[in-house]
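Listing 4. Sequential folding, example run.
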Amino acid sequence: MFNDRITSGPSGLQSTTASSDPFGEDKLCAVCSDRAVCQHYGARTCEGCKGFFKRTVQKKAQYVCTGNKNCTIDKRFRSRCQYCRFQKCIAVGMVKEGKL
């Protein structure tokens, strides 16, 4: 049921490490699909996207897309277009109001 890994320590005792949560779903960032532990600003996001969103809102930054405003935002390419990344943050439900 779970993707468990059994390892042996120096004492010969075995321990099990689950690679998925109890419900079988990995927790992924709604913006870039990186690993996400909890919700930030209204959406499940990774630390990178949380920080990006916070800085963008605090600075009131205005970004420009050099592409077609439909850039790929994933773990590997999330830093390539700040405009599209911020738009995706908004689209997945991150809110500007609240504690920053």
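-- end of first protein; second protein begins --
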Amino acid sequence: MAPPGIGSSSQPYYPETEQVPNRKITVLDGGFATQLSCHVNDPIDGDVLWSSRFIATNPEAVIKAHLDFLRAGADVIITNTYQSDVDLYAKYLNITRDEAYNLIKKAVELAQIAVKRYQEEFPRNPEDGVAERNVAVSTEIPALLERNIVATSDEFRAPLGKGNVAERDVAISDEILALLGKNNLADQTSTNDLKNELVQSWSKILQEVRPLIAGSVGPYGASLHDGSEYTGSYARTTSAETMRQWHLPRIRALIEAGVDMLAIETIPCSLEAEMLVKLLKTECPGMKAWLTFSCSQDGKSIAVGEDFKEVARRCYSLNPEQLVAVGINCCAPRLVEPLIKGINTMPEAKTTATERKASGRQDEHTARIPLVVYPNSGENYDVEVGWIKRDKCEPVEQYVSKWLDLGVSWIGGCCRTYATDVAKIRNEVESWCRKNKEVR
């Protein structure tokens, strides 16, 4: 039996209510500061550095919090960098800017350590996931085979490295090598180029069998410590260029440290969102990301008051090549459905990226948007007493099947959701996937 976090949620499923070709359901983690509180005695809420202080003061607790989510079944963990800021680190930890920059990179290293420990706890069975990998290979390799690549076993396996990942794929690599060996190619230079291309494709496939790490990129407003990431009020007084210069060092540090993607999250205004989507294209064109918004209580608008669906569609149209999903986070679960419902059901939103490219249309009126949601528990935060009214909140997992019916592909929790909540979300995802697989 596969360990938590491995299995059918990475399979493509096709729900009746939202026809999304090749959709994969990915389970995210939960509220990092919330889970971290299980491992530390010091207060987190109210700290100017919030949970990011513990990267410096208690790195082992950070690793343990990540591990909790992995054990609960998260396919992706998010770095503890939501409120990381080079200037704030330098000021409140009394360190240099270079040390502050490296502290952001350390957050990624701690997540990587957690993934490594998790893999050691739950080594993949050689039989586990063979079908999924063969499906992936079948979509990646045939075009290369048709171009008559030749390779030997040693040449092919050498770039794969050592350890469980390479070992458990020996059988499949043998199958591919048998196919490769049937081909002949006179041009040795071309052969080597194609072998390199094959290795890159195979490395990509191997990446997909481990939990991924998303670098948290919180909003500019989080650095102001006035709650404005939930209102977007700073958009009226802060230029996009000012925000850009603030974000750029943090994003560079995350990428240099080796994140798999970025989690651009809790963004309250289109000004900052559009700037970040464009920054991805100009400064880090090879990096994937998701984009989530902080939303208001009306079930229609992002925090600053702009229409969510319009802003989401516009942002996605600016960079569909790099945005793996657009959606919402840290709102009450009851608000998710009214916010996302209908965003991908209008006829003009049914085309794929390939179809848009073929037709020459790339605007927001033709884009089907991959959706990501990870709401909070629904509790309210009182500055005097902290989080309240948990007993009045419906469990997040009760909403999961409906969100999946609406086409959500990335799903998890935010503030006040624990690893236990992620485990329940995971169970609901697995149940939904089994049900819909049977129906289809």
